[in-house]
User: Fold these one by one.
Assistant:
Number 1:
Amino acid sequence: MGKWICRICGYVYDEEKEGKPFADLPDTWVCPLCGADKGSFAPEKEEAPKPPAASIQITEEMKQLSVGELSALCSNLARGCEKQYKDQEAALFRQLADFFDCAVPAVPDADIAKLSALIQGDLEEGYPALRGAAQQVSDRGTQRICVWGEKVTNILNSLVQRYQREGEAFLENTQVWVCTVCGFVYVGDKSPELCPVCKVPAWKFEKIEGRG
C-alpha cells in the first residue's frame, strides 16, 4: 500500500487509509480537492523529472508577439499590479488586455484535439525548456511563474481529457470557475474555498457565464 500525490494541488491519496489501491479506482475518479483526473497523480516516491538544459535564442518570430499573446501578457501584468496594490496600473493593463483580446482572429478549424495537442506541447516541451533556462540564470521570478503556470496547465489538460471522454455531459448541471489570480479552472457547483494552486479565497474566483 502506498500513496499517490496530485501533481496539481498536492492532495495525497493514501491507499492504506482509504482501504483501496489507487489502481482499483474507476477511470472517472477525480481528485476531491481540485477535480483533476487519475492521470494527474503520481506515486509518492516518483522523482520529478530533471529539466533539460536549455538556452534561449531570440529569433525574429519571438520579437513580435501576436495580439493574443499581447492580451495574455497585459492580463498577467494587471494581476501582478493587483498583488502590489497598484490599482491604477492594473486598470490600464486590463484595458490593454481587453483591446488586444477584441483583435484576436478566429482560429480556423479549431477543435478539442488541437487544443489538447497545444497543451501537451506546453507540458512536454515549453515548461521544461523555460524552467531549465530560468535555473541556468538563477531567475527565481520565472521559476515561480513556472510553478503556478505548470499546475494551471496540468488542470487544463486534465479537464480537456475528461471532456474528450465524457463530452457535453461533463459540463451538464454544473458551473465553471476561474481563479482571477493564477488562472486555475475548477468545474463544480461552487468554487473551492481556497484555490488549490495559489491559495486565495473563494471570492477571487469568477463564474464563467454564457455557456450554451
Note: The helical segments are 15-18, 60-63, 67-83, 87-102, 112-136, 140-166.
Number 2:
Amino acid sequence: MSRPEQKAEDKANKDAETAPDASVKEDAGRQAQEDAKAEADKKAKAEAEKAAQRPHEDAKAEAACRTELKTLGVTFEEAPVVNDGAACGIDKPVLLKGLPGGVKVEPEATVRCEAALQVTRWLDASVKPSLEAAMPGETITVLSQASAYVCKNRNGAEEGKISEHAFGNALDIAGFTLKSGKTITIRPADKEPTLEGAFQRAITEAACLYFTTVLDPGSDAAHQNHLHLDVKERRGGYRYCW
C-alpha cells in the first residue's frame, strides 16, 4: 500500500473511532426535545396561573360604579379594552382624569372603575381633612400618580406573581400639589417629626379603610417614593397594610 493510501486509511479509522455513536446522538436529541417540552409546559402553566388571577368584570357592577363616579363629580372617560395576553388586561377600563373639587390626576390613569372609586373616597374622606388639619387653608390641586395599569410582575420582578397593576386594580401615589404651589412628595416618614410627616402617616393609615393593599415607603425597597394602593379581592375581607 502506498504511503498516501495508508494515511487516508489511518484517518478514516481514526474518524470512525472518535465519531459519536448514532445511538448517543439519538439519545441527546431526544433529551433536548424533552427538556424543551418541559420548559414550554412550565411557561404555559405559569401563564395559566396568572390568567386565573385576572378578575372577572361584571357588567352591572361596572355600570353602577360609573354611575357613582359621576355622582361624586369624578372626571373620567371610557377607555379602550386593554388586552396584553392571557394574564394582563382590563375588560372595561376607565381613564381617570380628575377627582372632586377640581383635583387633576397627572398623568391621567387607566384603571378599573373600582380603583378610581376608592381613590375618590379616600381623597374626599381622609386626605382632604388630614391636609386641612396639618395645613389649614391649603387645598389639593393635583394628585400625582407614578403608575396605573402596566403589565408586569410584582415589584418588576422577572418571575413570580403578577402585579395588581396588570389588572388595573392599583394606583401608585407619588404626591400632591397644593393651591399655594407647594408639593408634598411621598417618602420615608415613619419617624419624621413634621406636619408633612404626620399628614403622610395619617393618609396611609386611612387608606386601609378603602384599599385591600397599602404599601408605603416603610414596606420595602420597591416602595420608597410612593404609596401603592390596590383593590385586590381577598377572602374574608382580609387587608394587607404596611
Note: The mean pLDDT is 85.
Number 3:
Amino acid sequence: MKEYTVAAVQMNSQPDLDLNLEQAYGFIKEAAGKEATLVALPENFAFLGKLDARLEESEKISVQAEKFLADTAREFGIYLLGGSYPVLSASGKVFNRSTLISPDGSTLASYDKIHLFDVDLEGGESYRESDYVQPGENEPVTYKSEDLGIIGLSVCYDLRFPELYRVLSKNGAELLAVPSAFTRTTGKDHWHPLLRSRAIENTCYVVAPAQTGLHGKSRKTYGHSLVIDPWGSVLADAGEDTGIIYGRCDPKHLEEVRRSIPSLKHRQL
C-alpha cells in the first residue's frame, strides 16, 4: 500500500440512466483533476428508482454502466469503484453489484450485495429489496493492489453486519468500501456510528460514497458521504449536498494505529 488520495462521490441519482452517468462523469473528471488515485461512486449510481423499474431496465443499465466505468477509468487513468448497479441473474432477479475497475479499464474485482434491505420503518416507510434482488454468495471479496493496498468490498445494508467486515479484516483489508444509498430515516441516527465502528474495530480506513436527497417522488437518502481513518476519525463529511470529498490513505498511519491498538492480534474468536 502506498500513500494515496481517495475521493468519495456524493450523488443524487434519479430514474434516468443518461442523466446519472453524465452527473457521475463530471464528478469523476473533477476528482481525477485533483489527483485522486481511487474514485468511489455510491450505490445505484447509474439508476435510482423503484425496484421494479430497476429490474425491468437492468440489462440496459448494466451494459451501459459497465462500459461507462471501463471507459472513464481508462480515460482518466484512475482506479474507479462502481458503487453498485443492477445485473440480471439466472433467477430473473438482479444482483446489486459493486465493481473495482483498474486504470486500464479492466475489472479487478466484483461483489454482489449479500444482505438485502427488507424493513418496515415508522411512518409507513417500507422496503423489500429481496422481491427483486438476488443475494450474492456468502463470499467476502477483497482485492490486493500495490497502489491501493487491500480493499474490502461491501454495499450499504452490509454495514449492519460486523461479521462481514471482520472476515474482510482477517483477509487483510486495509480500506473498507461501503457505497450506499442509506435512507434519511435511519441515516440520521445510525450512519456515522456504524461506519466509525467498522473503522475502529477493524483498524481500517473506510470510504463510504453515498446518495443524497430526493429520488423520484418519495425516496429520500441521507447523504453524508464519509472518509474515515483507522482510529475512527472522520477525515471528510460531504453533508447533504452533491459533490466530492477527499481523504489520504497513509500506510504509516495505519501501521501506527495497529501498533498502538493491536486488537486484531488479540482476537480470540
Note: The helical segments are 17-33, 51-56, 58-76, 162-170, 184-202, 251-260.
